[in-house]
Specification:
The protein has 143 residues and is an alpha+beta fold. It has a single domain (3-135), classed as Hotdog Thioesterase (Thiol Ester Dehydrase, Chain A, Roll). Helices cover 26% and strands 33% of the residues. It contains 3 helices and 6 strands; from the N terminus they run H-E-E-H-E-E-H-E-E. A 6-stranded antiparallel beta sheet has the order 1-2-4-5-6-3. Strand 5 and strand 6 form a beta hairpin. The longest helix has 18 residues, at 39-56. It is elongated, with a radius of gyration of 16 Å.
Length: 143
C-alpha cells in the first residue's frame, strides 16, 4: 500500500519524497489561527510517517502486515510555518526484536519515534507511536 492510498493522508497532501521520507508541503488550508501548521496536520504527518515505515521497512513482510495504532504521544515544541518532513528514529535492537517476534508469532508490537523537521532543518515536533502489527499468512501461487 502506498501512502497516497490512505484517503485522509492523500486529502491533506501527504507525499513521499525521493529519499523515502514522508513530507507535508506548505498548504494554507492546514494552518491554525496563528497562520502556522495546525497541530492536527503535524500529528497526521508524524502518524503517516510511522505507518509508512512499517509498510516499507521490512521487505520480507511487504504486503502481508496489518498495522493498528495502539498509543501515541506528541510534543509540539514551537510554532511551525511552511513545509515539514519526517524522520523515523528506531534502534537496531528494537527492529531485530520486532522482526523476530513477528516471524515467530505472526504478531508483534513496536514503538516508533518520529521527528518533524522544518525548512530550516530544525526539529520542531516529536512523536511516539506504539503499533500492534499482525502478519497475514503467505499466499501460495495459484491461491
Amino acid at each position: 500500500m502506498e501512502i497516497e492510498q490512505v484517503p485522509f493522508a492523500a486529502h491533506n497532501g501527504i507525499e513521499i519524497t525521493p529519499d523515502n521520507s514522508v513530507y507535508l508541503p506548505e498548504n494554507t488550508r492546514l494552518n491554525n489561527h496563528l497562520s502556522g501548521v495546525h497541530a492536527g496536520a503535524q500529528f497526521l504527518l508524524a502518524e503517516s510517517a510511522s505507518g509508512y515505515y512499517l509498510l516499507t521497512a521490512f521487505p520480507e513482510f511487504i504486503g502481508r502486515i496489518t498495522p493498528l495504532l495502539r498509543e501515541s504521544s506528541i510534543r509540539y515544541s514551537q510554532q511551525i510555518e511552511g513545509a515539514l518532513r519526517s524522520r523515523i528514529k528506531v534502534d537496531d535492537a528494537t527492529i531485530g526484536k520486532f522482526r523476530q517476534t513477528l516471524a515467530a508469532r505472526s504478531r508483534a508490537v513496536i514503538q516508533l519515534e518520529v521527528e518533524l523537521i522544518n525548512q530550516q532543518d530544525l526539529i520542531c515536533c516529536t512523536a511516539s507511536f506504539r503499533w500492534f502489527v499482525r502478519l497475514q499468512p503467505e499466499q501460495l501461487e495459484g491461491d
